Amino acid sequence: PEVYTGLVKLDGMLVGVIGNRQGLLPKGYPEYADYPGIGGKLYRQGLIKMNEFVTHCGRDRVPVIWFQDTSGIDVGDIAEKAELLGLGQSLIYSIESTDVPMLLVVLRKGSAAAHYIMGGPTANRHNAFTLGTAATEIYVMHGETAAVASYARRAVKDKDTGKPLEPLAATMNEMAQKYYDTSRPKYCAQHGFVDEVVDLKALRGYLKVFAGAAYQNPKSICARHQMLLPRIIRG
Question: pTM (2 decimals)?
Answer without folding.
Answer: 0.92
